[in-house]
Amino acid sequence: MSKAFRWLILSLFGLYFLVPLAASVEFSLRDVNETHSFNTWGKLLNEPGLFETLGTSLWVAFGTVALTLILMVPTVSWVHLKHPKLRRLVEGVSLLPLVIPPIVLVNGVLVVFRDAPEVINGTPVILVFEYVVLALPFTYRTLDAGLQAIALPTLVEAARSLGASWTTVLVRVIIPNIRSAVFGAAFLNLALVLGEYTLASILLMNTFPVWTVSTGQSEAGVSVAVSLLALFVAFLLLFVLSVVTGRRKATLGATQGKS
């Protein structure tokens, strides 16, 4: 494949994403008299509930990321180490949230936690458990790919032979070697929570996606501006995760170079 053809393909894909984005920005800046200003964005920032719902969604997102990684990193590592023949079975089970209707998922989690304290039922905490289940397919695939890329049995055997406990092996050997996969899974979880509307709406939780839909129904310009704001938040989180991952890789490379 020639270099010019590759650049052509990349340019077409770039235009496919950038042209609708530029059109959305232009529409959000358009006034009634066909001039352009930031009146719509000013109106958006003054909308009641913006920062409250965004804070709620970010809190739920970070809770989902923490609980998902705490559950999935040891589980996927254990499957790779002790029962590699079960990988396909576990992968199939993890894909179930993609085919289960949202209303069934909501009712299932509510039944499980029907006797839970009020701090869980009727609060955004219940969304954390819902989203952990919903994020299983993406989290498992990402962590599974990361673990396949390293010599996991060799690393674990070497650490254990030096007297490291299983907790030390997990924290100081496995996680640093699959750092990119962990950060990738974390970003997928963040993007899922910040864009998920159905479950939060069914549970009558006023999260950022629910606020986005309800606010955007009043005015077209505000609706587009809200969508762009959600996209900007997702891009910002991706940038932060990329910077953190890059710095950690650079530090690890420098340490290995000195040694």
The rounded Rg comes to 22 Å
Largest sheet: none
| Distance N to C terminus | 40 Å
Uncertain ranges: none
| Count of individual beta strands | 0
Strand content: under 5%
- What structural category do the secondary elements indicate? mainly alpha
Shape, per Cα inertia axes: globular
Q: How confident overall, as mean pLDDT?
A: 82
Order of helices and strands: HHHHHHHHHHHHHH
Helix content: over 70%
If helices are DSSP runs of H or I spanning 4 or more residues, what is the number of helices? 14
Describe the protein.
There is one protein chain. This protein has 259 residues and is an all-alpha fold. It contains 14 helices and no strands. Helix 6 crosses helix 7 and helix 9 runs antiparallel to helix 10. It is globular and about 75 Å long. It starts with a helix and ends with a helix.
Please sum up the structure shown:
The protein is mainly alpha-helical.
Core attributes:
259 residues; mainly alpha; 79% helix
Which SSEs are present, and which pair or pack?
Blueprint: H1 3-28, H2 39-45, H3 50-82, H4 87-94, H5 96-99, H6 102-112, H7 125-134, H8 136-148, H9 152-161, H10 166-177, H11 179-195, H12 198-202, H13 208-216, H14 220-258
Helix pairs in contact: 1-14, 2-14, 3-7, 3-8, 3-11, 6-7, 8-11, 9-10, 11-14, 13-14
